[in-house]
């Protein structure tokens, strides 16, 4: 039976899943890799470790499925976005650790660009909010801080890429230096309207064109793997940023459909059809995927700390042993007892975009113990999501009929119920919650004719559980008002 091998290179782990033609997962493998925090606000990954863990997972998933390379009709890749790698084209060696999307070292560069009045041009060209989150200032930082890098870049000796480009480079033995439209659009160097690298943005960020990858469609065979890697070459047919891939894997294929992914961060995306919609609410306008000549666009709200707040309770505070333990702990109390946690550990993303915000825990009394803090942490994940949905509605989106959910923290039933209650909208979890990998598989399978079109893919999506909202509109409004008072206190805390 023909299969697709999907690679999901995430912030916390590399994963590989083998899917059959019905969209069933036959086998998977996952490896965590090192997170490096060399200074406050800095987050780095080792690109070589990313590649090695990703390759090991791919081989392991194939072995567990009992398949050979010849059984795999295509590989699909989805990846953590924005994370920036710079490598030498001759040796293939990275010049420095990858600067991860959460890294805040370039906040000052962004502040200077904002003060100089460039935020409007950046938004007009890229659809993005001027922020250290995106690749442009990270790449500029590498070029400015690695000795001789700028000179080598201008001489065409260096390659820049987000993780998709890096993986394709490795998979093809250095033969292909490409990125897809959805990943390119997150660099802050790409004109989403003309669908090409923007001369204006390259000039603004002082990036030499010679480092850039070629931009390709999200679905389409872009090359094949080096035969030495899997024993035979495999076509690479799909490439997309993980949030766009997850939107595709959730079959949010028509305008008005939305998904939220609860991973390290939370990423809410709304399909807005074949035209980019400009946000007045500081949401991001981003291409979802390009298939042939057709591009579908999304509005996106990005929250930097989602499931990561649970990691903090586990690793930072030691309140729980495993992430999943938060559910029983939070369920042991009926509410947070007035405690409100704003997890602005990496500043605040949409809709606030405040790089100087920092985490706050408010409303503490003697009655607040670890269970209520755990509950406040889950509520914070859900409340940040409510702010994104509200912003989309102020941008003119129709009321949501349902919110499709996925990501590691979506396994938490209590969190999903809290989400439905605070949103006032049903939350629907699919049978296959590995939607990022599934989306990458769908894109790759379309490219090689395993599936015929979007209708067939939509037919493969299945709900597992629906969480209907409880609680009154008044209750929701008062919880939101309390949350916003807390957000105001977190904002601007670390401003110089
Ligand atoms: N049962 C759970 N309840 C709440 N959070 C969870 C649970 N299980 C995992 N998480 C959180 O989900 C995140 C992992 O989700 P995942 O989708 O694998 O992330 P990523 O794709 O960003 O690497 C971690 O931050 C972890 O703390
Ligand atoms: O790896 P994830 O799932 O946390 O996703 C990261 C996003 O792509 C960052 O924009």
TrEMBL record:
List of residues binding ATP: 11-13, 264, 307, 311, 408
Q: What is the purpose of this protein?
A: Key enzyme in the regulation of glycerol uptake and metabolism. Catalyzes the phosphorylation of glycerol to yield sn-glycerol 3-phosphate.
Carbohydrate kinase FGGY N-terminal domain location: 4-249
Query: Which reaction is the catalytic activity of this chain?
Result: glycerol + ATP = sn-glycerol 3-phosphate + ADP + H(+)
Q: Tell me the keywords, alphabetical order.
A: ATP-binding, Glycerol metabolism, Kinase, Nucleotide-binding, Transferase
What GO biological process terms does the UniProt entry carry, in alphabetical order?
A: glycerol catabolic process; glycerol-3-phosphate metabolic process
Q: Where does sn-glycerol 3-phosphate bind?
A: 11, 81-82, 133, 242
To which protein family does this belong? Belongs to the FGGY kinase family.
Q: What is the lineage of its organism?
A: Bacteria, Pseudomonadati, Pseudomonadota, Betaproteobacteria, Rhodocyclales
Activity regulation text: Inhibited by fructose 1,6-bisphosphate (FBP).
Quote the pathway field: Polyol metabolism; glycerol degradation via glycerol kinase pathway; sn-glycerol 3-phosphate from glycerol: step 1/1
> This protein is called what?
Glycerol kinase
Q: Which CDD domains match?
A: FGGY_EcGK_like
Q: Which organism is it from?
A: Zoogloea ramigera
NCBIfam families per the record? glycerol_kin, PRK00047.1
Which cellular components does GO assign to this protein? cytosol
């Amino acid at each position: 039976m023909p299969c697709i091998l999907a690679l999901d290179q995430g912030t916390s782990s590399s994963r590989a899943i083998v899917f059959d033609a019905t969209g069933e997962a036959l086998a998977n493998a996952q490896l965590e890799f090192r997170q490096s925090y060399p200074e406050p606000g800095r987050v780095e990954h080792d690109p070589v470790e990313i590649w090695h863990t990703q390759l090991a997972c791919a081989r392991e998933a194939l072995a567990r499925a009992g398949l050979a390379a010849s059984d795999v009709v295509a590989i699909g890749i989805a990846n953590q976005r924005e994370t920036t790698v710079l490598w030498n084209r001759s040796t293939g060696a990275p010049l420095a650790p990858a600067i991860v999307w959460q890294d805040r070292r370039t906040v000052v560069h962004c502040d200077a660009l904002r003060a100089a009045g460039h935020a409007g041009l950046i938004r007009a060209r890229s659809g993005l909010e001027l922020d250290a989150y995106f690749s442009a200032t990270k790449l500029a930082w590498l070029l400015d801080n690695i000795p001789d890098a700028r000179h080598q870049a201008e001489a065409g000796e260096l390659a820049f890429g987000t993780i998709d480009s890096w993986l394709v480079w490795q998979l093809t033995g250095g033969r292909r230096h490409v990125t897809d439209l959805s990943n390119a659009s997150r660099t802050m160097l790409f004109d989403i309207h003309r669908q090409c690298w923007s001369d204006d943005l390259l000039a603004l960020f002082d990036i030499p064109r010679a480092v850039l990858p070629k931009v390709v469609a999200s679905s389409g065979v872009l090359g094949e793997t080096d035969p030495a890697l899997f024993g035979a070459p495999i076509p690479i047919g799909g490439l997309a940023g993980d949030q766009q891939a997850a939107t595709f894997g959730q079959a949010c294929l028509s305008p008005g459909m939305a998904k939220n992914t609860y991973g390290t961060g939370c990423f809410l995306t709304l399909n807005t059809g074949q035209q980019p919609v400009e946000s007045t609410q500081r949401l991001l306008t981003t291409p979802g995927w390009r298939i042939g000549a057709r591009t579908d666009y999304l509005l996106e709200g990005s929250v930097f700390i989602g499931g990561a707040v649970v990691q903090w309770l586990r690793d930072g505070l030691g309140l729980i042993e495993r992430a999943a333990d938060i559910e029983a702990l939070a369920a042991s109390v009926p509410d947070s007892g007035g405690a409100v946690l704003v997890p602005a550990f990496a500043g605040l993303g949409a809709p606030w975009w405040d790089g100087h915000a920092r985490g706050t825990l408010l409303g503490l009394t003697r009655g607040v113990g670890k269970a209520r803090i755990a509950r406040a942490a889950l509520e914070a994940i859900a409340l940040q999501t409510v702010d994104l949905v509200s912003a989309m509605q102020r941008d003119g989106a129709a009321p949501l009929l349902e919110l499709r959910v996925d990501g590691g923290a979506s396994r938490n039933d209590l969190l999903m119920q809290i989400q439905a209650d605070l949103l006032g909208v049903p939350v629907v979890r699919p049978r296959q919650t590995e939607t990022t990998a599934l989306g990458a598989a769908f894109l790759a399978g379309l490219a090689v004719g395993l599936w015929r079109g979007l209708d067939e893919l939509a037919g493969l999506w299945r709900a597992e559980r629906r969480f209907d909202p409880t609680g009154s509109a008044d209750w929701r409004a008062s919880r939101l008002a309390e949350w916003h008072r807390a957000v105001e206190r977190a904002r601007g805390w670390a401003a110089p």
